[in-house]
Structures are given as C-alpha cells and as structure tokens.
Amino acid sequence: MKKYIGGIIGGVVILGIVIWIVFYTVNNRKSDSIFETKTTSNTEAQAIISKDLDRFYPSTVREVVRLYQRINTCLMSGNYTEAEFYKITEQLRRLYDDELLELNPKDSYEDSLYNEIIAFRNEGKVISVTNVQLESQTEKYTKDGKNMASIVGMFVVRDKTGISRTYEKFVLREDEKGNWKILGWELTDPVEFPD
C-alpha cells in the first residue's frame, strides 16, 4: 500500500513539474504578436484614436510632425489591442499627403508597419524622447505652385546597448484645405533643438 501511495505522490509531483514548465514556457516566450490581449482604456492609444482630425487637425508644420512622432511612439510601444492598431494606423495615414498614400496602399502599409514594430520590439528598443525644430525654424517654399515646408524631427531610441538618436527631415505639402500633410522624410544630419 505504501508503494502505491508513493507512486501516486511521485506521479503528482512529476505532473506538477510538467505543468509548471509548460506554464512558464508559454508565459515567457517572445511573441510574434505586437498586440495586447486585454482591452485597454484611457491609454495613449485611446487618446490618439479619439482625436478628431477633421475638426482639430494640427495647424502648423511642427504640430503635424509632433503628432506623427506621438503616434509612432505609441505604435512602437505595443500598448494597444489589434483593433486599436488599425485605428491608430488610420490616424497616422490621415497625416500623409495623397501622393504618399498612393505609394503606400493601406493593406501593404499595415503589413510593413506591423513587421517593423515586431523587429523594433524584438530588439528591445524603446522610443524614449522625441523632438521637433521650432516652427520658426521651418523652411517654407513653393514648388510647382504648391506651398511646401521642411522641418527636422528627432527620435531618441534606447536599447540594450545604449541610446541612439535618429534625425529625420520631413517634407510637407499644404493641401486644398490648408492642412499640412507629410509628403515624405529622409535621414539627415543632427541639428539643434529647443530646450
């Protein structure tokens, strides 16, 4: 009888160890998903989604780029659900010029952005600071009869190896409603930023 009870106890211990290993493995592996599994509320994601860009579109070149940076910081953080990802992405695309939208169809843009976020997060990267030149530092000009502007923004990214800064020169074009829309951006040399 003692051997029988000892066998049962041994089996229960082994089963407990197996369950613990499975639980630990499932909860600690890197995910190929960027999405939170729980519904979020009162988050940066919700604040971005609820922003009414039809009524309150940013009025300056600088504010458009600041909102772009805010949305990208939120996207790279991963603090949103799958449904929120698509709504945040739609808000980001509302900042883009029609020409940029044509070059980046919605479905392929979302797939590309999703993969970029996965790579960013798997490398342990976090956007810690963003900044944009002052509106007075905006270069405004006319090209092909359209009002254009350029301004430099900066992302500070933290990872396991330290901190890096990325400087991007944004080119914007004014649309028929007088809104500044992002036409594109490219890496540029470091510039001075306001405190």
Q: Could you tell me the strand content as a percent range?
A: 15-25%
Look at the structure and give the CATH class.
Answer: Alpha Beta
Number of domains in the coordinates? 1
| pLDDT < 50 stretches | 18-31
The average pLDDT value, as a whole number, equals: 85
Order of helices and strands: HHHHHHEEEEE
SS field, number of helical segments:
6
How many distinct beta strands?
5
Q: The biggest beta sheet, please?
A: 5 strands, antiparallel
How would you describe this structure to a colleague?
The protein has 195 residues and is an alpha+beta fold. The protein has a single domain (44-187), classed as NTF2-like, domain 1 (Nuclear Transport Factor 2, Chain: A, Roll), CATH 3.10.450. Helix content is 44%, strand content 24%. The protein contains six helices and five strands; from the N terminus they run H-H-H-H-H-H-E-E-E-E-E. The chain has helices spanning 2-28, 44-49, 61-77, 82-93, 98-103, 106-122; strands at 126-132, 139-143, 146-159, 162-174, 180-187. Strands 1, 2, 3, 4 and 5 form a five-stranded antiparallel beta sheet that branches. The longest helix has 27 residues, at 2-28.
Can you summarize this structure?
The chain is of the alpha+beta class and 195 residues long.
